[in-house]
Amino acid sequence: MALLRQEVDPHDVGLDGKALERIDQHFAHHVDEGRLPGYLVCVARGGRVAHLTAHGHRDIAAQLPVEPDTLWRIYSMTKPFTAVAALMLVEEGRLSLDDPVARHLPAFAEARVYESGSGADTRTRPAAGPMLIRHLMTHTSGLTFGFYHTHPVDALYREAGLESSVPPGADLAETIDVYAGLPLQFEPGTQWNYSVASNVLGRVIEVVSGQPLDVHLAERIFAPLGMPDAGFEVGAGQEARLAEMYGEKADGTGIEPIPGLPLHGRPRFLSGSGGMVAGAYDMHRFMELLRRRGELDGVRLLTPRTVEMMTTNQLPGGADLRAFGSHPAHDEPGNDGVGFGLGVSVVIDPDRTLAPAGLGTFGWTGVATTTFWVDPGRDVTVQFMTQVRPRTSHTMFRDLKRLVHEAIKDA
Description:
Mean pLDDT: 95
Oligomer: single chain
Distance between the termini: 35 Å
Helix content: 25-40%
Largest sheet: 8 strands, antiparallel
Radius of gyration: 20 Å
């Protein structure tokens, strides 16, 4: 079994071991206070794991501990994998970032944009230009999520059965057709709105490759990188390692078990937006691929130029997320100094971010309070795994960034 292990003394790679211990103390307190069931945190520098802690329980009722081989629902951290798969097809000449989405998914050929009104009185107009593949990867497509409750188009998604992004019982192809029949919030390429776009991108990958999304990612990414537990389902030999899912209680008194992403058996709906499960070892391998600019252990999936493009801000006018207003999708309050590349956020102005971050740091988060980032300038990679869906925003990720920053001696 592939297992993540500490490989080097923190001091030998320019990290302060005492400061790293403060990370453990901080999050152990969250466990003690009943805000987390347990967690795994891993800090690596130069590709070598310098700090690895598994603490608390993956299943509180069964008193099963978090261990290095625990499996986690990574939800939106699926999106960077989908982006990498699409960029591989771009490099092979089978897809272009400037392809109209309708070239591969004809249901989007007559897209319309919201103008005014709501419900049955919604008024729309034909889109001035096509939605492009790059718009899907940067969340500038005009698509949205039904659970936002912030725009009339969100309400139309809910009326179409998309509260959870997929109509009950539908597969990916069927779901994409429902998306295509709804108006866009804005003209493609003009604004940023975190959305179901990665599900659409997943369907594009299926059409272009001729393979189901789970099969394609397994053959093109998971197997070549040696990611044994990554996928869209857990098998008989993995079930015991899957962490229980928790949510914050409505009265704020702690956490309680809640239904999580179904993973027992192959899902009918293969979500490129949030359908994956992975272990810490899998995530470390993926982060290493990106840290090493597309190559790992002699296996090259992307060219350095493509990884550079993926991890460079692609938002209109070079703006940060703050330019598009506060947004319920972003996992931390305050978007100052943070842009978005192709499937990942990217720090474009460290002096304006809420938490310490090096210029060019990129990564993403998941709704169950999971996160990863790669800081190329300081050659640091970090992942944090737990399984709690919060009701409100929290400071855990900012706290983690601050604590990691304090541990870097040459920061």
